[in-house]
Amino acid sequence: MPTARRALIVVDVQQEYFTGPLEVQFPPRTESLANIVRAMDTARAHGIPVVVVQHRSPSGAPAFVEGTPGWALHPAIEERTAAASKHLHKQYSSVFAGTDLAEWLRAHHIDTVTIVGYMTNNCDLGTAVEAEGHGFTAEILSDATGAIHLANEAGQVSAEVLHTTLMVLLQSNYAAVATTAEWIETLPSGTPLPKSNLVASAIAGCSAAAPVPSS
Q1: Residue 215, in any domain of the structure
Q2: Fewest beta carbons less than 10 Å away: which of 93, 144, 162, 210?
């Protein structure tokens, strides 16, 4: 099995996600933040490049306006950014859109991106999906990411259900899903995280949904 040449992508760990309407709800913010920090420190100890991503919006936008308190990185991330391999700004959901990240990763011979940060239901999802088109294998750490409650004209969903559903979706095709501890265990050997596929997930899903025969 080939080894994974990884970079850790730390997505938008900004103050908007710790106060106000975009507060991450599940997993709990304190837990996911601790795991993000743990992943960053462990990656650096293993010589894995760390890319810190920071979203910014134009003046007048409802969130992430550069220079506002909510735009700032969380202090635990800010204090580690100087030691990161790269710090970039983005304006779209995916970290690849409108940035030089794909070219930078190729120049550093990276083939696998490990995604942590916020939110599961927006920028993490967009990044994992677009990674495939750029030729990168994607991993996502389930306890170092997080979702919010959502409600709109299409319905409503809790952060826990949304996060759990998206982890199942990602594992079925777009990204290998693991906990931070499971990911760290693979680093000395460079072993890729295991990922399912759509057919296997569909077969398992049908089996799980099948009614239990009455005795």
Answers
A1: no
A2: 210
Query: What sign has the CA pseudo-torsion 196, 197, 203, 208?
Result: positive
Which class for 111: exposed (0-12), middle (13-18), buried (19 or more C-beta within 10 A)?
A: middle
Query: What's 150's domain CATH number?
Result: 3.40.50.850
Q: Does the residue 123 lie in any domain?
A: yes
- Which residue's entry shows tokens 């927006």? 122
pTM beyond 0.90: yes
Contact 162, 150 (CB under 8 A): yes
Q: Which domain holds residue 41?
A: 6-209
Number of DSSP helices (H) and strands (E) in the chain, helices first:
7, 8
Retrieve residue 169's tokens. 């979706």
Of the candidates 92, 91, 105, the residue with the CA atom closest to the CA atom of residue 138: 105
